[in-house]
């Protein structure tokens, strides 16, 4: 991937970026402003980035259905113009004020990525602004750091397509552990499909709500392999239990303290509760390993599943026991959004990075550690 | 040590107390217990325990005595006192559901103890299992009196460097062949025995191999600084070990060790890895046809793993 790499330019004026994100079923447009760093030795604090617009539209499918690439791309194509216009209106800026147009280069679903990349190219040519291709995962990490102020955390990136434990070292976000098969969000979404739970606002959130009512823990497979996790076996198992229950073959809880004397029927809520308890425990465990390794006291949770309050709670207990702390953001920044693409893109742009029109292709496979993080010096 | 080196030195970490130098009991290394995870009071009150390592999953304590076992049990003679005991403790994790936590602690403690004992019975040099309490997450094992392979190599390298002025490069290379090579051959051969029993370690690093000063017959005699020294490699930490018949898993085991050498002993790592593998092939083969077939398969896989790294390319 040849891209122009110029010597780092120290921006003397504020810069503004437009970010377009559409790697999955969310189409996001964001506008962010960065301020130049205070002069060295002045003792002034760095001014945080300013979010000028953060607009998102989600392609929601009926219960029991997932989003197909072609339909999702169609959704993005239909909404992207409206969203860009809305973003400009919200920010009160004109195309003239924008310095660069950032878009998601990958990873993600091919068709939605392409439709958004085409939109980005069009805008870039129309307004005569440089393009900056951004790695989706790096976008999540950088936005999380900016919002929470975590300096050098171990990052747990959990979403519908990704499950990674990441730590920064020598200008790369290195992957410590990851899923060996499907992502945690994918596991939750597919289980929601089995249970026919609505996809509005998101299947994961609806599972979280059901899980809060769950009482009985159903034993599920637990698959941590060193630093990595595997989710597909768990999904296959719990899917089967759910199908049994839905077909009118009840299962009974076997916990002794349940009080039911072996006669308590397992409910949908119990299954959601057990699924969350199991897979989140796996995630917290691999995160703890990574923390022990790099000797870090901070954890940052990013990605759509990062909104889940039970995951945040479990992580907080683990971190507290280790004498550390957890940083998490809310749905505006956790769930895919345009602002994170704008933010990470602007960071790269500040070091002289641009993506030429010929290189502005997107890729479904784009590992987090492929990106050279020129803007961090530690 | 830079973060990168740290990252790779434990490329496939488990509960990783590996980055603490395993030290002999007499040396005091104070590791503060984190938060409120401590041993059951019945044990901590009865015995004088020293926390010597703390990882993500387990804590390692040293104790001079065991509650029931006479001090001479391990040595078998009355004249020699035992080197003491190691207590490995998996504290409960408060973040996970009680039922899940109990199940995991029990399962992992048992599985580690089983593998440890199986290997011990098979004559592989691992710490002897003494007792296990799966519900409490406790494993008692013998303490290995000796330093880790990592710190031993570091010590040898430092000593050689100090003599560089009057000895020169060639003499040093000779010394390495003379001193470090026999030990690494033995390490390779020990790993081969492990793999021959279809067991993979899961976290092979130079800190998870201890060098016991021993008088065992098969131990290698190393002469250095005019003092006769006997080094007997002992593999520890089977927290991530598992049974596997796949050549792939064994290749990954070797690859992880290779990465550990590259990150912790970068200057001569190529030489070191070569020696370990030489010992590995020799330890595996012993002229038997099936064993040679097996080891060739593993070596082929190792080349493949080297090319792609441990991780596959990520999709979506």
State the total count of DSSP E strands of chain B.
Answer: 11
> What is the multimeric organization of the chains shown?
heterodimer
Shape of chain B: globular
Give helix % range of chain A. 25-40%
Which secondary-structure class do the elements of chain B indicate? alpha+beta
Our count of domains of chain B comes out at 2
The main β sheet of chain B shows up as:
5 strands, antiparallel
CATH topology of the largest domain in chain A: Nucleotidyltransferase, domain 5
Which fold name corresponds to the CATH topology of the largest domain in chain B?
A: Transferase(Phosphotransferase), domain 1
Organism (chain A): Lipomyces kononenkoae
Protein name (chain A): Glycoprotease family-domain-containing protein
Structural features, described:
The complex is a heterodimer of chains A (378) and B (316). Chain A has 378 residues and is an alpha/beta fold. Chain A folds into two domains: 4-144 and 336-370, ATPase, nucleotide binding domain (Nucleotidyltransferase, domain 5); 149-333, ATPase, nucleotide binding domain (Nucleotidyltransferase, domain 5), CATH 3.30.420.40. Helix content of chain A is 39%, strand content 19%. Chain A is built from ten helices and 14 strands. Chain A has helices at residues 69-91, 110-127, 136-148, 184-195, 203-211, 232-246, 268-294, 309-321, 331-334, 338-350; strands at 4-5, 15-21, 26-34, 50-58, 100-106, 131-135, 154-158, 163-169, 172-178, 224-225, 228-229, 298-302, 325-328, 353-354. In chain A, the strands form four sheets. Chain A has a five-stranded mixed beta sheet, sandwiched between helices. The model of chain A is unreliable at 1-8 (pLDDT under 50). By secondary structure, chain B is an alpha+beta fold. Chain B has two domains: 23-143, Phosphorylase Kinase, domain 1, CATH 3.30.200.20; 147-308, Transferase(Phosphotransferase) domain 1 (Transferase(Phosphotransferase), domain 1, Orthogonal Bundle), CATH 1.10.510. Chain B contains seven helices and eleven strands. Chain B has helices at residues 3-9, 41-46, 98-121, 149-196, 247-264, 269-285, 289-308; strands at 49-54, 59-63, 85-89, 129-133, 138-142, 146-148, 199-200, 209-213, 220-224, 227-235, 242-243. In chain B, the strands form three sheets. Chain B has a five-stranded antiparallel beta sheet, with helices on one face. Chain B has a four-stranded antiparallel beta sheet with strand order 6-8-10-9, with helices on one face. A two-stranded antiparallel sheet of chain B has the order 7-11. In chain B, a hairpin with a 2-residue loop joins strand 9 (220-224) and strand 10 (227-235). In chain B, helix 5 (247-264) packs across helix 7 (289-308). The longest helix of chain B has 48 residues, at 149-196. The two termini of chain B are 34 Å apart. At the A-B interface, strand 8, strand 9, helix 7 and helix 8 of A face helix 1 and helix 3 of B. Chain A: This is Glycoprotease family-domain-containing protein.
């Amino acid at each position: 991937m040849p891209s122009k790499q110029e010597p780092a330019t120290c921006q003397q004026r504020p810069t503004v970026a437009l970010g377009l994100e559409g790697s999955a079923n969310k189409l996001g447009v964001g506008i962010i402003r960065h301020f130049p760093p205070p002069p060295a030795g002045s003792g002034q604090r760095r001014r945080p980035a300013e979010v000028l617009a953060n607009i998102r539209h989600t392609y929601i499918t009926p219960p029991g259905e997932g989003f197909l690439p072609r339909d999702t791309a169609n959704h993005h194509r239909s909404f992207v113009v409206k969203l860009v216009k809305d973003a400009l209106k919200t920010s009160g800026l004109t195309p003239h004020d924008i310095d660069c147009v950032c878009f998601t280069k990958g990873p993600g679903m091919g068709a939605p990525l392409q439709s958004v990349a085409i939109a980005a190219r069009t805008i870039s040519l129309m307004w005569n602004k440089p393009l900056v291709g951004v790695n989706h995962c790096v976008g999540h990490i950088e936005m999380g750091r900016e919002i929470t102020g975590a300096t050098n955390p171990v990052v747990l990136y959990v979403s519908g397509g990704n499950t990674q434990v990441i730590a920064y070292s020598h200008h790369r976000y290195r992957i410590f552990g990851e899923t060996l098969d499907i992502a945690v969000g994918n596991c939750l979404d597919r289980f929601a499909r089995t249970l026919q739970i609505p996809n509005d606002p998101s299947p994961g959130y609806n599972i979280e709500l059901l899980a809060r009512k769950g009482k009985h823990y159903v034993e599920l497979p637990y698959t941590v392999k060193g630093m990595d996790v595997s989710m597909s076996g768990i999904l296959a198992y719990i899917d089967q239990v759910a199908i049994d229950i839905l077909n009118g073959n009840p299962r009974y809880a076997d916990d002794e303290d349940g009080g039911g004397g072996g006669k308590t029927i397992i409910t949908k809520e119990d299954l959601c509760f057990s699924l969350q308890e199991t897979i989140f425990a796996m995630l917290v465990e691999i995160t703890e390993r990574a923390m022990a390794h790099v000797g870090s006291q901070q954890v940052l949770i990013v990605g759509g599943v990062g909104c889940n309050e039970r995951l945040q709670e479990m992580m907080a207990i683990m971190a507290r026991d280790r004498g550390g702390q957890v940083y998490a953001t809310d749905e505006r920044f956790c769930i895919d959004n345009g602002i994170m693409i704008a933010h990470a893109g602007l960071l790269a742009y500040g070091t002289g990075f641009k993506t030429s029109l010929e290189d502005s292709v997107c890729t479904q496979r784009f590992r987090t550690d492929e990106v050279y993080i020129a803007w961090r010096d530690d | 040590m830079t973060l990168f080196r740290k990252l790779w030195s434990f490329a496939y970490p488990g509960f990783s107390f590996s980055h603490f130098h395993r030290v002999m009991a007499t040396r005091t290394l104070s590791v503060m217990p984190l938060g409120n995870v401590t041993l059951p009071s019945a044990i901590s009150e009865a015995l004088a325990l020293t926390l010597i390592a703390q990882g993500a999953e387990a804590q390692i304590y040293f104790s001079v005595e065991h509650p029931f076992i006479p001090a001479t049990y391990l040595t078998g003679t009355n004249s020699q006192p035992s080197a003491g005991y190691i207590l490995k403790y998996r504290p409960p994790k408060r973040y996970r559901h009680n039922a899940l936590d109990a199940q995991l602690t029990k399962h992992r403690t048992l599985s580690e103890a089983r593998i440890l004992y199986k290997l011990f019975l098979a004559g592989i040099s691992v710490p002897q299992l003494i007792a296990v309490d799966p519900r409490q997450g406790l494993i008692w094992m013998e303490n290995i009196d000796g330093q880790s392979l990592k710190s031993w190599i570091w010590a040898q390298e430092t000593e050689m460097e100090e003599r560089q002025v009057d000895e020169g490069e060639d003499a040093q290379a000779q010394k390495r062949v003379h001193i470090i090579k026999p030990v690494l051959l033995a390490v390779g051969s020990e790993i081969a025995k492990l793999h021959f029993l279809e067991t993979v370690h899961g976290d092979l690093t130079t800190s998870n191999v201890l060098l016991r000063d021993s008088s065992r017959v098969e131990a290698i005699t190393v002469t250095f600084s005019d003092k006769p020294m006997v080094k007997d490699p002992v593999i520890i930490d089977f927290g991530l070990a598992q049974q596997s018949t796949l050549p792939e898993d064994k290749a990954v085991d070797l690859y992880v060790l290779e990465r550990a050498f590259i990150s912790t002993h970068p200057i001569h790592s190529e030489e070191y890895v070569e020696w370990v593998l030489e010992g590995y092939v020799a330890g595996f083969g012993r002229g038997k046809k099936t064993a040679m077939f097996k080891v060739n398969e593993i070596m082929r896989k190792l080349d493949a793993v080297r090319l792609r790294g441990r991780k596959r390319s990520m999709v979506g």
